[in-house]
Amino acid sequence: MQVELTRISEKGQVVIPSSLRKEMGIKKSDQFMIFGETGTLILKKIETQAIKKTFDEIAKPLQQAVKQVGLTRAEVRKAIKDVRNAA
Question: Model pTM greater than 0.85?
Answer without folding.
Answer: no
